[in-house]
Design a protein that fits this description.
The chain is mainly β. 4% of the residues lie in helices and 44% in strands. A hairpin with a 6-residue loop joins strand 26 and strand 27.
Length: 1020
């Protein structure tokens, strides 16, 4: 089973499986899971409305904690337990909690020892908390403030768990008129903070209900019929269990309970016997539900009308991005900052007088720091440094290479001793615009190798190198010439492995990397000098991601997060001779403005040693220039099936060797870019397991070996031949792109096109529509109805001039079928004149299915549509092509032009053939329709009753079936393989089925007149 996310919402961080076994013995069965591979991304942005962890401030502070849920779990204590005679470490699910971390709001006085400390009194400028029913506002005095992301979360047992986030957007809501804290004697609302309010039925609803909070602590409100209800604390005693407590109401004042307040929340009792009014998941009042405390707000009294100026600084923290004057004419509003990549935001309050306060509510958009790279180069350099060879490898399962191993082979003339390995070309799918592509938008990763030149420069102290961190040369970040000698112990999970024993209580612990910690663990970083004949050596690597703009005035928090990788690496010095096999895939093709009579091929590489003996699959190497030269040699020598030129090569298959080397320094070795440029516009490069290249259309053999995966985007060029010998799965972070070009030579398209794509496209299951906002495109997929297809035939002279063909949207399933032709309604497009692009299909997480075309049958058959036109049975069969096709006009096909299907019989004597370009389709006419010249597209239901033949022996025999009609039933016997369709006299389908020759089917029917494949029958 395979599944890949195709949009931002169809998968999350939990996978659900349903095992259905209705016939299993005793209702149970099992699945043996052989392997389970999860590909995860760390790219989602999420929004947090930050609220203080307290409801009141007895006195002002200079640092306030604003907790939020990290969406990670805190397992709690882990102890050894014995279950069914098996002893192992276990945690108690009852102790599992959400892992929380604190944002910190502070001014300079809140910094102690380089770190902001929550609760620090300082100058007390964070003075008060207020609530308006939805937002918690923080009352601030004149000062400059920072809101800093957390670097650690505190788990149970007082354990620090490293976390890392970047702020990518921020919103500051300001107000000078916020409801004050409540006290006994006030009129109040009791709210869930999400726009719902407690009523007399103890339900939270959108209707505001005012409660009287009497001086004796009793709470009362009136119902819709003016009955006064009092809130009541109820004890529920039980002989068999503990006493429980709940909320209720009473109409009697003497039964009402007295409740306390801290100014924001309401509670019964005190100390450890305090029960806070909260709300449950059903919106019902309850006690002590974590993170769901109800908030009490004053319904009448508000703070004074204060005037102040609020300034928010830009991403650098040096310049004012926005400034707003807040006063009675502008009492509330917000300031929004976007395109951040920050450890903190900075803002300033100014202009308050006396004891006045400015009220702010803080919202942030976050991303987790993301050190999870997808690929890197391994290079091998001669001792002199003169020449360097490279290969690029995937980083799967935190290892590099094939199953975590790299056998790096080089030619014998490259050297045998003293060669140097290095890791470089580190690649991340979410690199920001400073990593070589200034057009990147919305990506933020600042990844780099630990022990790279940049990492050593920063020295694990971002605050001391703020400008370097923001704009340093990325090429100094993505190369490292040393490797670790042992794995960094980033957590203590090893002590919980099966079979370990021990006493006491433990907690899951994570450790943030540092050079000091690594040295303490006994790890060192060493250069990678290698010789031919050395065995595999385990090499360890660490990758870091960090915030770009570090504007917080603190000096000790490290806004960095780490990922850990390894590979077993060795050098082999040996020579191989490449052998290329050419396989014809198409005999010819149609390309823009011409018919190409030359055949197209795929190329597969195998290897022989210098003694001309074949090399075992999965071993050996070639280098790019070898392949380029070998193809040129084979073309010149007219080797069997070698193409006329390299542009007639549609795929290059190197999946059965070990590696494909290249060199950026020496053209005698060549690069994969050079090789790819020689091949066809849509050529695919199939690489060995674990090997890749940072190029479009380069794919890698999967771990299972059954198909291929793509860590790169795949781009298909319209109107050019395409062939995929193997299926390809794209990761969710990669997309396949097809840009539809305008067809020239007067084939004007305004609304409709025919389209066949080799990949799945996510569509709306209700409408069959596809919307793509990046290029402002929207369209809907349709297929021709398979029966009762035609209507509204219009006769003119000796032939039927036109008829309607009925189409229905492709719906009911979430993705289209690859290699199936569709008619597409263009609902929205922005045609670009520069490259004549009509629309663009982009699909992340798609699957490209192997091309089902063959050399003898290059056409791919689609749906078969049947119906009658003026009584003549008509059958059309859809055919699509990835090579294009030249069809003689005498065959009477229907090709697409000017938003309709046109018969090739309309072509005048200047044209003998119809040319259909790649990625398009046409309809062949198997019988009938030779008198039809145009087929219009109709999306309406076909309510026109099919042409009815009276049932006779001749008509039913020619139709392929015989029947007998008895009272209340109809029996059909097929005389040939066919699909039967029974309709009533109004044209409604009653029964549809497929029958083999000689097969019989009986259908129960009320008395009446019916049509069986257009033949009228009567059931008594």
């Amino acid at each position: 089973m395979q599944r890949t996310s195709m949009n931002n919402t169809d998968m999350g961080n939990i996978l659900y499986f349903k095992q259905d076994h209705p016939t299993a013995n005793n209702g149970s069965s099992w699945v043996d899971i052989v392997s389970f591979v999860v590909t995860f991304e760390c790219t989602d942005k999420f929004n947090e409305n930050l609220r203080p962890g307290v409801t009141t401030l007895p006195s002002g502070v200079s640092c306030l904690a604003l907790p939020f849920q990290t969406q990670r779990v805190d397992l709690g204590p882990i102890t050894q337990k014995t279950v069914k005679n098996y002893k192992s470490y276990k945690y108690d699910y009852g102790n599992v909690q959400d892992l929380k971390a604190d944002f910190l709001l502070y001014d300079n006085s809140g910094i102690v020892g380089g770190t902001a400390k929550p609760g620090t009194a300082g100058d007390g400028n964070i003075a008060k908390l207020g609530f308006d029913g939805t937002n918690t506002y923080i009352g601030l005095k004149n000062n400059t403030y920072w809101l800093e992301t957390p670097t650690d979360a505190v788990a149970q047992g007082g354990v620090n768990i490293p976390v890392g986030y970047r702020i990518v957007g921020a919103r500051l809501v300001y107000a000078n008129n916020v409801a004050q804290n409540i006290k006994k004697g006030d009129k109040i609302y009791i709210t869930d903070g999400k726009g719902k309010y407690l009523n007399a039925s103890l339900k939270f609803t959108p209707t505001k209900v005012e409660w009287n909070y009497a001086t004796d602590g009793k709470l009362s409100t009136k119902s819709e019929n003016s009955t006064v209800y009092y809130l009541r604390h109820i004890e529920n005693s039980s002989w068999s269990g503990p006493t429980t407590y709940s909320l209720g109401t009473t109409t009697k004042s003497n039964q009402a309970s007295s409740f306390n307040t801290d100014g924001t929340t309401l509670s019964y009792g005190s100390g450890t016997n305090s029960y806070i009014i909260s709300y449950d998941s059903n919106g019902k009042a309850a006690y002590n539900i974590t993170q769901s405390n109800a908030i009490a707000v004053n319904s009448a009294v508000t703070s004074s009308d204060n005037s102040f100026t609020v300034r928010m600084f830009d991403k650098t923290g040096n310049n004012v991005a926005q400034e707003v004057a807040v006063n009675k004419d502008n009492p509330t509003g917000d300031i929004v900052l976007e395109k951040l990549n920050n450890d903190a935001i900075k803002f300033q309050i100014e202009g308050l007088t006396g004891d006045q306060l400015a009220y702010v509510c803080l919202h942030v958009q976050l991303e987790a720091l993301n050190p999870y790279i997808d690929k890197m180069d391994i290079s091998c350099t001669q001792p002199s440094g003169e020449k360097k060879l490279k290969n690029q490898y995937l980083a799967d399962d935190f290892t590099i290479g094939t199953n975590g191993k790299v056998d790096f082979a080089v030619p014998t003339n490259f050297g045998t001793t003293g060669l140097r390995f290095a890791f470089e070309g580190l690649h991340h799918k979410n690199a920001d615009e400073t990593y070589g592509d200034p057009t990147v938008v919305g990506k933020h990763s600042r990844y780099h190798f630990v022990k790279s030149y940049y990492y050593d420069l920063i020295g694990e102290n971002l605050q001391a190198h703020r400008s370097d961190a923001a704009d340093y040369d990325y090429t100094k970040k993505i190369e490292v010439k040393v490797a670790g000698t042992k794995a960094f112990k980033c957590n203590n999970s090893d002590i919980f492995k099966a079979g370990t024993t021990g006493d006491g209580t433990h907690y899951y612990v994570e450790n943030r990397y540092s050079n000091t910690a690594y040295n303490t663990q006994g790890g060192t970083w060493q250069k990678m000098l290698v010789n031919n004949g050395d065995g595999y050596v385990k090499r360890y690597l660490v990758v870091c991601d960090e915030t770009r703009y570090n504007i917080a005035p603190t000096t000790t928090p490290r806004h960095a997060f780490y990922a850990y990788y390894s590979t077993d690496l060795k050098l082999t010095t040996v020579n191989y001779v490449p052998e290329l096999t050419y396989t014809k895939v198409y005999n010819d093709a149609v390309v823009p403005n011409t018919y190409d009579a030359n055949y197209y091929v795929g190329v597969k590489v195998s290897l022989k040693d210098t003694y001309n003996k074949p090399i075992t699959d999965g071993q050996g190497y070639v280098y790019a220039k070898q392949i380029i030269d070998k193809i040129a040699e084979d073309i010149t020598n007219k080797k069997e099936n070698a193409p006329v030129d390299t542009k007639h090569i549609l795929y290059f298959d190197a999946s059965n060797i070990n590696s494909l080397l290249f060199s950026d320094m020496d053209p005698t070795w060549g690069t994969l870019t050079d090789l790819k440029a020689k091949l066809g516009d849509n050529a695919l490069l199939y690489m060995p397991e674990g090997v890749t290249a940072n190029l479009k259309n380069v794919v890698t053999k999967s771990l299972s070996g059954d198909d291929f995966v793509s860590e790169n985007d795949i781009e298909l060029v319209d109107q050019q031949p395409f062939f995929a010998p193997y299926s390809i799965r794209l990761n969710a972070a990669n997309e396949v792109v097809y840009k539809r070009k305008v067809t020239l030579n007067h084939n004007e398209t305004k609304k409709w096109v025919s389209l066949m794509l080799p990949f799945t496209v996510a569509v709306d299951t209700e409408t069959g529509s596809y919307v793509q906002t990046k290029d402002n495109c929207a369209f809907t997929f349709y297929t021709m109805n398979t029966d009762n297809t035609f209507s509204n035939a219009q006769e003119t002279g000796e032939y039927i001039y036109e008829a309607d063909a009925h189409f229905s949207p492709f719906k009911g399933v979430p993705v289209t079928k690859p290699n199936q032709s569709y008619i597409v309604s263009i609902d929205q497009m922005e045609e670009t004149n520069s490259d004549k692009v009509l629309f663009v299909v982009r699909q992340s997480g798609s699957t490209i299915e192997a091309t089902p075309a063959t050399l003898t049958q290059p056409l791919i058959q689609g749906e078969t549509a049947t119906g009658k036109i003026k009584g003549e049975a008509t059958t059309l069969v859809n055919y699509g092509s990835y090579c294009g096709v030249k069809v003689p006009k005498t065959e009477g096909i229907f090709y697409f032009n000017k938003d309709k299907f046109i018969s090739s019989l309309l072509l005048d004597e200047r044209f003998q053939d119809v040319y259909v370009l790649p990625f398009r389709s046409y309809y062949a006419c198997q019988n009938g329709a030779n008198n039809v010249r145009y087929l219009n597209i109709s999306l309406e239901p076909n309510t026109e009753t099919s042409w009815i033949d009276n049932a006779t022996e001749n008509t039913t025999t020619s139709a392929g079936f015989m029947f007998s009609a008895d009272t209340g039933k109809l029996t059909i016997t097929a005389t040939k393989d066919l699909r039967t369709n029974i309709r009533n006299i109004n044209g409604q389908t009653i029964d549809t089925t497929s029958l083999k020759a000689g097969e019989t089917r009986t259908v129960a029917l009320p008395s009446g007149i019916y049509m069986v494949n257009g033949t009228k029958v009567v059931v008594r």
